[in-house]
Amino acid sequence: MTQQEFKRNCLIAVTLAAFALPLVVRSATYLHILIILYLYAYMTTTWNLVGGFAGVLPLGHSVFVGIGAYTSTILWLQYGISPWIGMLVGAVLAAGVGYLIGKPTLKMRGAYFALSTMAFVEGIRVMVENIDMLGPLKLNGPRGLNIPPLQMGEGSFWAFQFSSKEPYYYIILTMLVAVLAMTSAISRSKMGYYLKSGGEDPDAAQALGVNVARYKVAAMVISSFLTALAGTFLAQLTLFIYPKSVLTLDLSFELAFIALIGGRGSIAGPIIGALLLRPVTEFSRIYFSATLPGLHLIILGVVLIVVMLYQPRGLTEPLLRIFDKVAARFAPALPDTPDTPDTPDTPDSPDSPNSPDSPNLPDTPDAPAGPDTQGTPAAPGATASASPREERP
Amino acid sequence: MKRSHLLSAVLTLCLAVPALAFAAPSVKVGNILPLSGPSASVGLQAKQAREMAIEEINGAGGIKSLGGAKIELLYADSKSDPNVGVTEAERFINTEKVHLLAGAWNSGVTYPTTAVAERYGIPYIVPVSVRDTITERGFKNVFRIAAKDSWWTRDQFTFLKDMQQEFGGTLSTVAFVYENGDWGTGFAAQWKELVKSSGMQVVLDEPYSSSATDLTPLVNKIRRAKPDVLLLVSNAADAILLTNTLADYKVSPKVILGSGGGHADPTFISACGANARYVFDIVEWETDVNKPGAREANEKYRAKYGTNLTGEAVDAYVAMYVMADALERAGSLDPAAIRKALAETDYKSGPGMIVTYDAIKFDESGQNRNAALSIVQINDLGKGLERITVWPKAARRAGYTPVFPMPAK
Amino acid sequence: MDPVFLAQDCINGVLMGLIYGLVALGLTLIFGVLKVINFAHGSFLMVGMYVAYWAVTLSGLSPYPALVIIVPAMFLFGYWVQHLLIRPIFIAEKNVREPITVIIVTTGLWYVLDNLALLVFGPDYRALNPNPLKGQMLEMGEIIVSVPKLYGALATLATAGGLHLFLQHTRLGRAVRATSLDREAASLMGIGQWKIFNIAFGIGTAVAGISGAVLTPFYNVYPTVGIPFDIKSFVIVVLGGLGSIWGALVGGVIIGLIESIGPNFMTSTWTEGIVYALFLLVLFVKPSGLFGQKQDW
Subunits touching A (CB < 8 Å, at least 3 pairs)? Predict the structure, then answer.
């Protein structure tokens, strides 16, 4: 078994384990916490398409969550259209809005982009809070919309409501796996390279004739489409939405936090970020909120600061380095070493070790297998264009 | 070495704490409250009132029909966010295995969390949240102590009518000014219906943002509309700012009538000072209520936490006694039995019964059918500003004549 | 519209707008030099308000004399925040002109400060006591002008003027400007980049402290008081041009006037929407803002 195969097998094993988890975890609370965790990992992954690959900092992704949530809810409440269909309608709408927002703003740099996306969220929240009826559509202003729950013990696929947590778990897990596969494909596609090169140094990319802006807008459209799907899921999970719950800066910020803690622009980043940050948020709130109000948010703040100070590129890189070491121990680096008799997987793995589409999870510079990858990633280059992310062919 | 000692100490602690919790038989009550964020102030009051009640109940021997079981309160911070509230309700029910839930102050959080409780069949006591629809969904497990918002607005208009009859003078114009959240817009919708039969003309209907940094433009708008009556729904920070700014700009309608919340916040009077004088406010309870035990309860609360009991705190306080009463009668921790006992509640007397009305009884929807409201006026009778009950007339503080209309500034 | 009403609204709009400008001034100053947005700026304002509150409560001074305590305290606070928290990131991400991680660190700081205030001072709304300025109004017929706001507006102009003089006419001020224009070149010319960063951050924070002192006579102090000012300040600095002192004041006045005059034509909640719409319009049409220089990045 090569390192590549080992890693791939690990990935498959983790995915299968995630799908099998509800067989072991019977507590609805933990399932619920996991559902929320996956939901955040999902939203952060879609955020990452813009915030990670395109190298800008969007702080307004809750707009798309809101559009997804409101669209499907309104369609269900007023027209009886299944939230599954509403989900797609909302996503298409969000993609349109994403285009409208992205087209002018993505030309801006850094601070301006971040601030303008914030202004969009706030502006749209103000609008929704001030509008009770938008034509025939009932937005219900600040009071929000509630989805009447089905009778106790009932579930319905059509209504996107289930009596137990497991269906929600599988839906969001499937969405998460799909979106991860999608981002990993995008990151390896031409678009991914262009996005990343644009994110690292827009001028150089422009000079090379890459229309960075166009790819960024495309990324924004895809990202907003996918984010809106999560909005519908969130609405169906809580059955109640109002402007301050889905159209908030808090949510937008949290996505950015998770991505940055995990590592921007890396595919595993949102997962690792969510795995680390969500439990910190949840458990510190559970244990401290009653006795020391606010302490849980202090903890969150301190975690953010400490991670940014000591691992400004996120925690994924160091974790994957550890994983590489583990991989190196279990599977020697050379692909055809004879001393691997206890690995029956070897014959039936068709992928060549360095095949371009082997699902090597990380999008980190140390992707090519080899003993020397345990070292630090290449130091940030002296010139901006020689940054480590561009070492790929 | 040292590190491993520390580690083992921490581990022991982690293991020991839950073990201790299981040692005594207890009734677990999950409380969802806004303990951080802009509503942290009311969340804290709700928590303190609950704690005082439970200390008393446990001190008096706990739930006797359950072998002297003690009530254990668990808290969760909703941050006023419904999504967090739902997560916490799920956790309370599934992991903490609470026997009852109570909360959540914000109607927006109570609304979805009661739905969670209903799904699991866990009784949920709502001390405060006023939104009508909370008890209008046919739920079996929701029990609300407070009056619902249609009763609040109804009583506000009755008050205005009664005052005109008693003191003469006519109130011909009214301005609605309310925070643009769930609560304010809910009240305003009711006002717009009620005003039709009141003979008053609406000269201003203005929502505003509670987080507005400057309320002067709003105050100027009120000044120009020259209403006789100013009806307000405000949270704490904006109630203070609005009251001060109204006074600064010499806006003097005949009546300023608040809707609890910010106007009832314990810091409202101290932060506004003389500007708060003559303001009317609708509440569920006031410190001068003529009810045995009320004064003592307030003294005790004041000594413990430094502020007076508010109507919302009293709702929370009484809710704990209603809960203890139901548990006593249920004699079981089975949710269905507790639910049944709660539904049959007829709580007339007892240590926590300090509300103005005679008995707490729930109708089929779970609404406390007797929940009554009173209106107070803030005035200084020589001992500093205080809140004085003026309406209904039967409950008016002896010897006090309401200042109506407010003197012009 | 009645001209008296218009005059009244304009006066209030300008006064309040200048105070908004003062709050934004610290933000724009920090941005001008470090090229990062300090998301904790609202929290700095909150800290400034608590410092002002306690300085007044404990010393019995009125808020303006208390500035002799507030300004140095806040300067040191900002100086050390930059030194201990922001500088290491600049060092770690040397090749990045504008590290996004700084935004996250300042956001983390915002969470820590706001909730530390909640933990230490509780959620209470505190009003200044003694408060000699409370309720003082100048009446000119129908027109009423708030004295504490007038003082606030004057303090804004004085602060902006002082900063202008400092940046244009002192050696240190010129070093700050040089660093903001081109930090590498400034470093080569022997200007210590980190020290300048510390000082700029300290001054920005001290200005937030002045804003706190200006606000306390007519505003309550509570842990989340900074949040509404936070977003408003972002809008103002972009409107005026990131990094521009006078731009911040003009941006503030524009917002103040919209908020003040707007409600004559719509419910006041919509004015917030107008502010965001204008903000986006400026971003699209003239991203450098009304007074901003074209940035070198």
Answer: B, C
- Which pair of tokens denotes residue C215? 């606000």
Write the pLDDT tens digit of every residue in B2-53: 444 544 444 444 444 444 444 457 899 999 999 887 788 888 889 999 999 9
For residue A36, give the nearest of B87, B112, B184 by CB distance: B87
Q: Chain C residues with CB inside 8 Å of A112's CB?
A: 238, 242, 283, 287
C-alpha–C-alpha distance, residues B301 and B316, integer Å: 13
Specify the amino acid at residue A113: F
Sequence letter at residue A115: L
In chain A (393 residues long), the average pLDDT of successive 10-residue segments reads 77 86 82 90 93 85 95 94 95 95 81 85 90 86 83 75 88 95 88 72 66 85 96 91 87 89 86 88 78 83 88 84 81 51 39 39 38 36 33 31
- Cα separation, B72 vs B74, in Å, equals 7
Cβ separation C260–B207 shorter than 8 A: no
Q: What are the backbone dihedrals phi and psi of residue A106, each rounded to the nearest 5 degrees, phi first?
A: -70, -10
8 Å CB contact of A239 and B186: no
CATH number for the domain formed by residue range(s) A3-319: 1.10.3470
Count of Cβ atoms closer than 10 Å to residue A341 Cβ = 7
Contact B214, C16 (CB under 8 A): yes
By the 10 Å C-beta count (0-12 exposed, 13-18 middle, 19+ buried), C277 is classed as middle
Query: Which chains sit next to B, with 3 or more Cβ pairs under 8 A?
Result: A, C
Report chain B residues whose CB lies below 8 A from the CB of A290: 35, 47, 74-77
Edge-first strand order for the sheet with B201-208 is B201-208, B173-179, B229-233, B255-258, B280-283, B374-380, B385-391
CB contact under 8 A, B240 and C9: no
ipTM rounded to 2 decimals: 0.88
B118 contacts on A by Cβ (under 8 Å): 149, 152
Chains with 3 or more CB pairs under 8 A to chain C: A, B
What integer pLDDT is reported at residue C98 of this predicted model?
Answer: 66
Give the tens place of pLDDT for each residue, B364-383. 999 998 888 889 999 999 88
pLDDT value at C10 more than 90: yes
Task: Determine whether the interchain pair B40/C16 forms a contact, defined as Cβ–Cβ distance below 8 Å.
Answer: no
Cβ–Cβ under 8 Å, residues B302 and B331: no
Q: What are phi and psi of A241, to 5 degrees?
A: -130, 145
